[in-house]
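hey can u check if this looks right to u? its 219 residues, i copy pasted from the old doc so theres a chance i mangled smth
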Amino acid sequence: MLMKRPINLLMDYDNIIFDLGGVILNIDYNLTVREFSKLFSCDANIFYNKNNQLKFFSLLETGKMSAQSFRDELRNMAASTTSERFSDEQLDYAWNCMLLNYPIERLELLLKIKKLRRIFLLSNINEIHEKECLDRLNKLTSNSSFDPYFEKVYLSHRVGLRKPHKEIFELVLKENNLNPLKTVFIDDSIQHVEGARNYGIDAIHLTTSIMDYFPSEHY
C-alpha cells in the first residue's frame, strides 16, 4: 500500500497566506480573559474569548471604532461590576496580555520562503494590538513593520473587513491575482479556516508548530 507523503506547502502551493497570532506570534487568549476578569470582578469569558466576542470588539477589529471609544466601552461595561475607573494604560495592559513572543525561527522561515513563494499576512487585528505587535517585533529584529516578511500585509482594522467573511479572502486573491487552487491559508482558528474553505481556498487549521509544514530540506 502506498503511503501518503507528508504535507509540504512549498511543493503543493505557489501562494501562502499566513495568520499572525497563533501562527507567527505566540498568543494566549486566556491571559487577557484572566486579566479582564480580575479588573472587572466578573467572568470575562461572557464578553470575550477566542471563539466569541461582543460586537464592539469586532468594530475595533474592523476600524469602525477608535481605540479610545473601545476603552470607554470597556469602562462602561466595568461600571456594572466595579466602582473603579480604569486608566487607558490598565485597559491596554489587560488587552495586550494575550500577546506573547515571536519565535525567531518563524521569522527566519518567512524570510527564506518569501524568496521561493508569494506569501501574505492576513490578520484580524486592531490598532492597539498592531502597535504592541510591531513594538515587540522592533525590539527583537529592528524591523518596524511586517513588510520585510511578506509581499503584502492585510490587517482587518485597516481594510475594514475581517475573517471569516468571504469579502476579505476575495480582496486578497483579487488584488494579487492569486489562483485559489494554488493558494493555501494557515490559521489557528477553525472558524477562519472554514471561511477560507467556503470561498474555495485550501486551508490548514494549525494545531502544531508552523515549522512542521516546511521541512528544512526544501528551502
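The beta strands are 15-18, 118-123, 152-155, 183-187, 202-205.
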